[in-house]
Amino acid sequence: MRSLPLPVTLAARLLPVGILACVGWAWSTGPMSETAAKDTSDAAPQSSATPSSPSSSVAAKTYAKPPAPCGTVSATTISSLVPSAKKAGKELSATDESVRRGCSWSALKGYDYRWLDVSFEVKGSDALAKQAYQDNSGSKDSPLTGLGDEARVTSSLTTKDKQDTRESVVTVRRGNVLVTVTYNGSDFESKGAPANDTMIKGARKAAGDAVAGLGSAG
User: Fold this and answer.
1) What is the pLDDT of residues 63-100, one digit of tens each?
2) Do 37 and 125 belong together in one domain?
3) What is the pTM of this model?
């Protein structure tokens, strides 16, 4: 094959370099630089935009703190459920009273022993309280209507040293507060325990007082 003259060969080798140089000039300082800058500026807001996060919104929180627990159950209810008990009750110790508070009443009248406990636990939001309520539900729970946003009750009968004790526990969620009422009793003369319906009705009555003691909000 006949070899090309030197100028033609050199020109062929330098052509790609020239093309790349022209393209580089067009992107850096030439007319295409304006288009590239515009494309970049148009894309910038999309890349810098930060999607809203649910955690940035303020979570609904109905109550700021629990109420004074011993004042939430009426004297009439105490007299009915725990005869001979001191109406003032005994507040339960708590590590943080801004989150959890409780009160108990107990008494022995003749051979009948009764014990009532009411506790309040404030969660960080209504949603957290609802989740906690659901997480602690069990197969033996029975739903209750007319108490707070949702409520349930469970009962049990235990025997120790041939003595029966029946206990009913009502759990209520209202807003971001969980209210738990525990009511139990024994008859030391017969070694038996009160009827199941009696304990459930008693626990429900105390729970009604406790939920009302929360007020509308606070």
Assistant:
1) 999 999 999 999 999 999 999 999 999 999 988 999 99
2) no
3) 0.73
Count of the separate structural domains present in the chain = 2
Nearest CA to 141 among 112, 117, 172?
A: 172
Beta bridge partners of residue 143, listed in sequence order: 152
By C-alpha distance, which of 101, 78, 74 is closest to 210? 74
List strands edge to edge, sheet with 100-109. 90-92, 100-109, 112-122, 177-187, 163-174, 150-160, 142-144
- Among residues 62, 184, 204, the alpha carbon closest in space to that of 143 is found at 204
- Condensed to tens digits (0 to 9), the pLDDT of residues 110-141 reads 999 999 999 999 999 999 999 999 999 999 99
The pLDDT of residue 58 is 57
Q: Do 86 and 163 belong together in one domain? A: yes
